[in-house]
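pasting for the record
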Amino acid sequence: MILWIIIAIVAVIAIWIIASYNRFVTFKNRASEAWADIEVQLKRRYDLIPNLVNTVKGYASHESGTLEKVIAARNSAMQSMAGANPDHAAAENALSGTLKSIFALSENYPDLKANTNFLELQRELSDTENKLQSSRRFYNGNVRDFTTSLQVFPGNIIGKMFGFKAPEYFDIPDDGVESKPVEVKF
């Protein structure tokens, strides 16, 4: 009788370990999938930016400094695209800020604001930014769930035993740049 109790306890522990391990693998895969969704939207954004800049160039050729900043921010963001890391988040936030300056720039060029290519590119970019924001929230939600499951008892035992580590949140750096309004000088 005691042997059956020991076997039952060992079986319950084994099932619990297997279930916990599988849960962590699921969390890890969800976070990876969510990051892939972010990368898809970033790629779309990177592809739209040169078209937007070229459209603006035709109307505001003397605003080359603003346009060069957008291109530099795009290139920096693309180069730092190696997974969820603080440098990549900072580069993406800098790019978002420079894009705002292009839209602010368009306010001073009525012909540009009326241009159908510019309006369509602006709409596409705005749609991409919304999708990107949603993807970031989804990713951070998955990271939160993964991190929580790795920190609570008894999951933290299994997580450490198998070496699971939660990825970094896609977060805005605490440098205050993102919260400041975009400055456009003429």
